[in-house]
Amino acid sequence: MVDDWFEIKKRYLVKETIGSGGFGKVKRALHIATTETVAIKVMDKAKLGADLPRVKTEIKALRTLQHPHICRLYEEIETENKIFLVLEHCSGGELFDYIVEKDRLNEDEARQFFREICAAVAYMHSKGFAHRDLKPENILIDEDHRIKLIDFGLCANPDAGIESALATCCGSPAYAAPELVSGRKYIGPEADVWSLGVLLYALLNGFLPFDDDNMPTLYKKIKSGKYDEPEWLSSESKFLLATLLQVDPKKRITMRRLLSHRWLIKDHLAPVDPTSKYDDKTLDEELLTNIAIGLGWQRAEMRQELVQWKFDALTATYLLVGYLQLRRSQGKTGKII
Ligand SMILES: CN(C)C[C@H]1CC[C@H](N2C(=O)N(C)Cc3cnc4ccc(-c5cc(Cl)c(O)c(Cl)c5)nc4c32)CC1
Description:
Elements: H1 6-11, E1 12-21, E2 24-31, E3 36-44, H2 45-48, H3 52-64, E4 73-78, E5 82-88, H4 95-102, H5 107-126, E6 139-141, E7 147-149, E8 165-166, H6 178-181, E9 186-187, H7 188-205, H8 215-224, H9 235-244, H10 255-259, H11 262-265, H12 285-295, H13 299-306, H14 313-329
Antiparallel strand pairs: 1-2, 2-3, 3-5, 4-5, 6-7, 8-9
The site of the ligand CN(C)C[C@H]1CC[C@H](N2C(=O)N(C)Cc3cnc4ccc(-c5cc(Cl)c(O)c(Cl)c5)nc4c32)CC1 has 19 residues, from strand 1 and strand 3.
């Protein structure tokens, strides 16, 4: 009996299960070399069956997308029976639970979160990916109260370009765009913008704009584009929601225009920046030197390995030591294991 966990247990102390879903389980773990906390998504290849392509899609997205508001992949391990994804841990839990707990968010807090979500989604689109399953359950909050986008199993990365028409209907109905629930061809980014409208509505109100237990009735409500406007909504919020929840995708605001919309800029100095400081994939020479010395490697050898971004043990060490140094510089470590 092969031990699928052998490789993982060499470098991580695996702790409790922190969540599960159709894909498998997510466990909390400690990276032994740095004591950093990570989340390990464990999937059983046999149980995945037809869902295996979704996992490959998610891995491709996670390897490509490196952004402060997208959950970071540190390492990927595939054994005979399992696939392990070592991911950035988010101690704040799901945005969904946060909204439920607070009933609804005030405009300023909703704006802060919404700016970060739009930054992550705009960055995804610029890299040729549409998320297609944007909802509070797929948005986590980290210990710095920052947004982290997760669950890229449904995202699209069409070879014909992100603006090419998609056909597969997917995601959660309540967040799905009218063109998607009508079974028509749709453009990924346009459907994501609609979902952002539903998400913003949920942040500001604590409930959904279109909701019904009966699917056909729900679809009718979505296609009507009609929703309540509670009296606590400011006129500015109502204007923004109206541009996002436009039934006609050609009349809907584009992601680019959304980033500089007056509602998003209010009390902030600048439009939302769709680029990622993580993304330039240049290596931190000081960090690279520290690890080379630590592991007794030549720097050139180390650089040659790291630039390939294999998301193996070395990538994980580089990223986690980097993360540790960042937190030390912010005076945040010294936490108890
Ligand atoms: C409802 N979903 C279908 C699954 C649920 C599983 C637990 C998870 N979680 C939680 O629910 N906490 C409350 C703790 C927690 C802490 N850190 C996490 C770090 C990463 C992830 C994560 C999970 C999945 Cl399924 C991914 O694809 C990616 Cl890219 C990342 N989940 C985390 C996570 C949230 C999602």
